[in-house]
Amino acid sequence: MPRYYEDKPEGGACAGVKEDLGACLLQSACVLQEGKSPRQCLKEGNCRALQYSFFECKRSMLDARSRFRGRKGY
Question: Cystine bridges: which residues?
Answer without folding.
Answer: 30-57, 41-47
